[in-house]
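Sequence, please.
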């Protein structure tokens, strides 16, 4: 049983080399078959591991038989099991979509599988240095995948991400050096034991923690460490956009989650309450201003990570469960939305919102799948986004200012998706499109329909899902779960939709269009983005010191 844990990392790596053989026998489509087969095998292994994980056991594997702290260990607990399962499900449908596009060679699948292996390693690793190694593996793979199509914008987006991410990994490595010099341990379990005895008042350990948070925070893309994301997600191949938004930024934030809990850094955890509020609000402001359909979704990745971060910052058990629930739901509905828009671009060759229209009848499967994703991200029942957003709202009952920012973000989310839905429900495109068939391959429709069903399934019976997540993520059971479908929550949802529609009417007016053009024109260059990372590091140090001195309590 223990050997199965390492196989979840090894199988994608082994399969990636079989993809290279496809170059010599391309008619067999070996790369596509092997990639999907490897993902299905990993999912089967996760199914085998489910019973002991559900009982609360931790399945561990020591590489080479060397135990911690000397050896490298991988650990599969409930937290890691759900994260791995989420990653594999999204990866599976992204690979099926990529196969349907018929535009990707064997190198694409080779790198894609290495990307999957790296993310699984980050999720399962038992020590902080190997987390760094696995981050580097999936980061290098992501640079290649973003630039895979060889277009100028995608290459530039990949290069910018490479530079900013490399700076972040430099901070991460500095944190490892500080931690090891101060404690002599790298094992996450040993760190947890050490912190439980020493507390979190040591400035050196707090400095190491801040290095980790800033280093990984770039990949999690919360504001102000988000600058690389919009172009990278917008100009990557469609399956890559889906997996970057659906999985990569989530796995990165879950790494921060693990590290903060291990360090018992609850003061720094509460700083995320405000980081999340501003991330959700500013991200959606930029999103609604976009006219590029994929860039609009990319900015929503930033905004939605804000919802996840803000609930994590509350720190209470229900809030943590709500944060993870929304993280899981966002992985599904956001990957669905990226694949829906990818299908539109595949069929029409157009990504500009105002140059598309009246696709509802021409692409019905894509339209209904998009509708599911849209209702989910806007928080409309009975889809998954409603349940997790309602729980996040309930968890913010003692933080009215933060709740106000989150509610505003939800209103603007409705507005931006009313704008984006115009590609299906708006007026027909005036340009000649008689050469376009608007048909998409059956494999694309399979991915869209399957993810749509998941978005509905994870929204129905929210009490069941939150209790299951609570058992897996925290190892305990909540005594009381608030009613999600309460009159208060339903009225708040109706108010949100009404205000969102009113704002949509405003942005269609002349003053509204001018406002959006102004927001859209605001951009930070690469130099300013790198400077912002350093400034964020200094701000976290200052906030940590202020909180430690008791000047401010979050």
């Amino acid at each position: 049983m223990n050997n199965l844990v390492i196989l979840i990392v090894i199988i994608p790596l082994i399969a990636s080399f079989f993809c290279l053989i496809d170059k010599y026998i391309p008619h067999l489509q070996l790369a596509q078959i092997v990639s999907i087969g490897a993902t299905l095998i990993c999912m089967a292994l996760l199914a085998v591991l489910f019973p002991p994980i559900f009982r609360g056991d931790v399945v561990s594997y020591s590489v080479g038989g060397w135990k911690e702290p000397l050896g490298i260990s991988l650990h599969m607990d409930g937290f890691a099991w759900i994260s791995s399962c989420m990653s594999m499900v999204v990866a599976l449908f992204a690979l099926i979509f990529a196969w349907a596009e018929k535009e990707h060679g064997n190198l694409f699948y080779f790198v894609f599988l290495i990307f999957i292996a790296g993310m699984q390693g980050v999720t399962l690793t038992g020590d902080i240095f190997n987390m760094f190694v696995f981050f580097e593996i999936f980061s290098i793979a992501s640079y290649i995948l973003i630039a895979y199509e060889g277009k100028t914008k995608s290459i530039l987006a990949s290069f910018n991400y490479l530079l900013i991410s490399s700076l972040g990994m430099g901070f991460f490595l500095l944190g490892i050096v500080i931690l090891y010099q101060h404690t002599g341990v790298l094992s996450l379990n040993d760190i947890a034991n050490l912190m439980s005895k020493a507390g979190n008042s040591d400035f050196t350990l707090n400095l190491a923690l801040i290095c980790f948070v800033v280093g990984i925070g770039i990949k999690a893309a919360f504001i102000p460490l988000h600058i690389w994301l919009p172009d990278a997600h917008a100009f990557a191949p469609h399956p890559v956009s889906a997996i970057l938004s659906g999985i990569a930024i989530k796995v990165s934030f879950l790494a921060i989650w693990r590290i903060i809990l291990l360090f018992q850094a609850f003061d720094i955890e509460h700083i995320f309450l405000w980081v999340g509020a501003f991330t959700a609000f500013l991200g959606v402001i930029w999103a609604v201003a976009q006219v590029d359909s994929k860039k609009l979704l990319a900015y929503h990745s930033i905004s939605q990570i804000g919802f996840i971060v803000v609930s994590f910052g509350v720190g209470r058990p229900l809030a943590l469960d709500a944060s993870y629930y929304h993280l899981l739901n966002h992985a599904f509905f956001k990957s669905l939305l990226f694949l829906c828009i990818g299908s539109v671009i595949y069929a029409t060759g157009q990504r500009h919102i105002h140059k598309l229209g009246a696709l509802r009848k021409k692409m019905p499967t894509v339209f209904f799948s998009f509708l599911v994703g849209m209702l989910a991200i806007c928080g409309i029942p009975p889809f998954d986004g409603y349940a997790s957003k309602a729980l996040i709202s309930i968890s913010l009952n003692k933080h009215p200012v933060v709740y106000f920012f989150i509610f505003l973000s939800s209103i603007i989310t409705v507005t931006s998706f009313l704008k984006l839905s115009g590609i299906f429900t708006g007026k027909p495109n005036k340009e000649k499109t008689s050469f376009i068939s608007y048909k998409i391959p059956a494999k694309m429709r399979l991915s869209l329909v399957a993810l749509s069903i998941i978005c509905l399934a994870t929204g129905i019976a929210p009490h069941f899902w939150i209790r299951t997540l609570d058992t897996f993520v925290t190892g305990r059971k909540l005594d009381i779960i608030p009613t999600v479908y309460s009159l208060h929550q339903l009225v708040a949802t109706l108010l949100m939709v009404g205000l969102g529609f009113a704002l949509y009417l405003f942005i269609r007016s002349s003053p509204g269009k001018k406002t959006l053009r102004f927001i859209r024109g605001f951009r930070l260059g690469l130099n300013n983005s790198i400077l912002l990372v350093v400034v964020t590091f200094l701000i976290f140090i200052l906030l940590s010191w202020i909180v430690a001195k008791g000047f401010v309590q979050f």
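Strands lie at 59-62, 73-76.
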